């Protein structure tokens, strides 16, 4: 068997650990298997950019951040630069004799993978997103690493907030799903957590922060980039000609500074710090489990499925069940209830 592996979408801690696990598991099961890495996601199929992966080349990747294969978060062969280049990608697979493909990616990459699967490409998916928002999957690798960064940032911001009696606003990733802000906010002791799934009222937020400042002299706000005001307002940035959710941290900092006279309000944007660096021990183990499960699915011929974590077990879910869908924070989720009981979430 000759297997291709690609990493699509944004980078995150744990990608290299999955590449390592898939490769080592396949080679351990059958030394005659060949594993090829496709560079920069689906772009590599269109550009014919492949590289061999061996046990020696992947063995030390477990704790390395990023992806040695590179990635491209806008390389959709079905809509590439105004035309359908999927045939070009299929030709690449045929030319190199790739018998099966492992797609490691988020909802966008898995949706593309599902389309290729429907065209007859033997395909197994591995869910990747620090946002933790892939349907039918309880935990994505990279998420724990991102939450750890948020929690540490809030812990550090708390000391300066206490010293200067400030309100500190921290903006995290989370366009449509607020898992990072919710879990990171709980781990970092945020006084207010703002997520896309729960629109917030600025007057109520101001009153809550006033109470916290009077009680303890400072306050911490953890806000997801896609958080929404109760009137439906969201904040967008248009750098590089592409509109992206973001900027709510600074907008909220400015608004609170006006509403909290006599209290200094400062904002911090974590941005890509949440994506970078080595994966946590949890993510290294989860990535390894996903990679081994993907290799076994390939050997079993369970194509057209993605691996998912359910009840601490790696299971196989049809790609069609996750394609084009997102797992958002339910308002009755135990974490939401916990934050609400603590007064951090409306």
From TrEMBL:
Keyword hit for Electron transport = no
Tell me which stretches of the chain form a coiled coil: none
A single GO cellular-component term from the record reads:
6-phosphofructokinase complex
Task: List the GO biological process terms.
Answer: canonical glycolysis; fructose 1,6-bisphosphate metabolic process; fructose 6-phosphate metabolic process
Which biological pathway? Carbohydrate degradation; glycolysis; D-glyceraldehyde 3-phosphate and glycerone phosphate from D-glucose: step 3/4
- Cite the Phosphofructokinase domain residue spans from the record: 2-298
Q: Report the Pfam families cross-referenced here.
A: PFK
At the top of the EC hierarchy, this enzyme's class is transferase
**UniProt family annotation:** Belongs to the phosphofructokinase type A (PFKA) family.
Q: What is this protein called?
A: ATP-dependent 6-phosphofructokinase
| Biological source species | Inhella gelatinilytica
């Amino acid at each position: 068997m000759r297997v291709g592996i690609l990493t699509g979408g944004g980078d995150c801690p744990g990608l290299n650990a999955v590449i390592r696990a898939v490769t080592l598991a396949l080679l351990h099961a059958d030394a005659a298997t060949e594993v090829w890495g496709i560079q920069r996601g689906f772009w590599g199929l269109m550009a014919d950019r492949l590289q061999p992966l061996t046990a020696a080349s992947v063995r030390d990747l477990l704790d390395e951040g990023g992806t040695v294969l590179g990635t491209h978060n806008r390389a959709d062969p079905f809509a590439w630069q105004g035309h359908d280049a999927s045939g070009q990608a299929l030709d690449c697979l045929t030319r190199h004799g790739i018998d099966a493909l492992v797609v490691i990616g988020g909802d966008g990459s898995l949706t593309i993978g599902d389309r290729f699967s429907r065209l007859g490409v033997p395909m197994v998916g591995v869910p990747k997103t620090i946002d933790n928002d892939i349907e039918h999957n309880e935990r994505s690798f990279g998420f724990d690493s991102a939450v750890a960064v948020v929690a540490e940032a809030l812990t550090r911001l708390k000391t300066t907030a206490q010293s200067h009696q400030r309100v500190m606003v921290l903006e995290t990733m989370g366009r449509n799903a607020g898992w990072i802000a919710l879990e990171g906010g709980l781990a970092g002791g945020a006084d207010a957590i703002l997520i896309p799934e729960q629109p917030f009222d600025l007057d109520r937020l101001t009153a809550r922060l006033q109470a916290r400042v009077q009680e303890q002299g400072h306050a911490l706000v953890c806000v997801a980039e896609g958080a929404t005001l109760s009137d439906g307002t969201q904040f967008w940035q248009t750098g590089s000609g592409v509109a992206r959710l973001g900027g709510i941290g600074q907008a909220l900092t400015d608004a609170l500074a006006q509403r909290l006279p006599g209290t200094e309000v400062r904002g911090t944007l974590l941005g890509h710090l949440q994506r970078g660096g080595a994966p946590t021990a949890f993510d290294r183990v989860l990535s390894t489990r996903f990679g081994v499960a993907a290799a076994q699915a390939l050997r079993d011929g369970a194509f057209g499925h993605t691996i998912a974590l359910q009840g601490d077990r790696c299971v196989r879910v049809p790609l069609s069940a996750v394609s084009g869908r997102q797992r958002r924070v339910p308002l009755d989720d135990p974490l939401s209830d916990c934050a609400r009981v603590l007064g951090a979430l409306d």
